[in-house]
Amino acid sequence: MALSGALRVFLDCPSCDFDFLRREVAYIDYVRDRKDAEVHILVTTQGTGGGGTEYTFRFIGLGRFAGEEDELRVTSQQTDTGDQRRQTYTRVLQLGLIRYLTSTPSFDDLHVVFRGRGAEDRQILTPAADPWNLWTFRIRGSGSVNGERASRARNLSSSFTANRTTEDWKVATSGNLNFRQNEYTLSDGDTLTDKSHDHNANALLVKSLGPHWSVAARGRLASVTFLNQDLAARLGGGVEYSLFPYAQSSRRELIFQLTTGVNYFSYIEQTVYEKDDEVVGDALFLAFLELRQPWGSSAMRFETAAYLHDPARHRLVLQGDIDVRVFKGLSASMDASWSRINDQLYLRAGEATDEEILLRRRQLATSYRYRFSAGLSYTFGSIFNNVVNTRF
Predict the structure, then answer these.
(1) Confidence band (pLDDT; 50, 70, 90) for 251?
(2) For the chain, what percent of residues have pLDDT higher than 90?
């Protein structure tokens, strides 16, 4: 049901609780297409150094409000519940709408309530001492079991993160342990058991060199049965340039990275190159573009890497996705990637058995990898989307 004289708003926020917003902010008309709106609210999110989420609200005036734009930001904490997060961004949405509501019949119903301190007891506040010095930590563990008459599965996983982020420095460390065991009862009564693991530890240190440049050092340890790696260790560093200031990353970013490093590999089984272990250097170049605009969003990635001892052992990756509003009611999306692969130093010697292929116990040799998906969505009918009905 449309509201007489109400402000027409197109809310572009995939991460928002839309039903909650429609109930809490019920004095506007929510429309299904941007072309029917008077205000387009584009919401983007970014992770913060403390594990929280920064919401950026872009209010874009359309029609009679063309040219009237605003931007508000708010941050939720990692420890916030889902309800606390939605209460936070709902408040910001309401504040951003005030400038537009003053030109509608809703102006007569607007009231401002300030919940802060009164002037008589207001005092200068200083930041509270932080006993953690901006460090945040997270530890997680989980397990699962499932089964039926002829098969059983067990999974165990754990992880940790320790991060510290300031304007000048970024420190990020993480670790993951993953075990998997599947058992199958075959037709002859025998039991086939498949075990695998994927463990890794990562460390990243980044130094800001201004609004466009940064340098980094990175280390990694891993052990992955699928990749025939009993131990894979890498230590490297690099430089990054951002064409747009980093402060604009919630709307647009175009970055270029150049990194180099040294690797040590110890293999579970001898490789096709007759190696049990080896030390090799590598170099990588990355270009990444991401746009989040009123017409939709898109991202493109180009990556090329090679081992320095033999540049013929290289990899080339192209990835792209786009989600765009073609015209009123019609949206199109596409996701594609293609890789040229010639750097599988870890391949086991010998032919893979049918059992290993079917159970994906080992990585097989390949010179390419690709993925493609596309879709269209067309919506028509009433332009309004105000009613919430959660029955059934």
Answers:
(1) confident
(2) 56
**Cβ atoms 235, 262 nearer than 8 A:** yes
CA distances from 330 to 32, 34, 37 (A): 11, 11, 16
In this prediction, residue 120 carries a pLDDT of 46
CB-count burial class (<10 Å; 0-12, 13-18, 19+) for 3: middle
Q: Is 359 left (phi over 0), alpha (psi -120 to 50) or beta?
A: alpha
At 284, the pLDDT band (50, 70, 90 cuts) reads very high
Region 270-280: mean pLDDT is 96
Backbone angles phi, psi at 9, to 5 degrees: -125, 135
pTM recorded for the entire structure? 0.75
H-only helix segments in the chain = 18-24, 82-101, 354-358
CA proximity to 33, closest of 322, 331, 254, 344: 331
Residues 6 or more apart in contact with residue 350 via CB below 8 angstroms:
none
Terminal-to-terminal C-alpha distance of the chain: 21
Which residue would you say has higher pLDDT here, 103 or 306? 306
Average model confidence (pLDDT) for the chain? 89
The DSSP secondary-structure symbol of 117 reads: -
- For residues 7 and 97, the answer to whether their CB atoms sit within 8 Å is yes
**Is residue 128 over pLDDT 60?**
no
One-letter amino acid of 226: F
CA–CA distance, 209 with 69 (Å, rounded to integer): 31
Joined together, the tokens standing for residue 116 give 């802060």
HSE of 230, CA atoms in CB hemisphere, 13 A: 11
Q: Are 76 and 52 in contact (CB under 8 A)?
A: yes
Provide mean pLDDT across the span 166-178.
94
d(CA 356, CA 348): 12
Q: Enumerate residues 6+ apart whose C-beta is below 8 A from 308.
A: 260, 280, 281, 282, 283
CA distance 391 to 142: 33
Structure token digits, residue 182: 């599947």
Burial letters for 335-355: b for 16+ Cβ neighbours within 10 Å, e otherwise?
eeeebeeebbbbbbeeeeeee
Alpha carbon of 121 to those of 114, 309, 350: distances in Å? 14, 70, 79
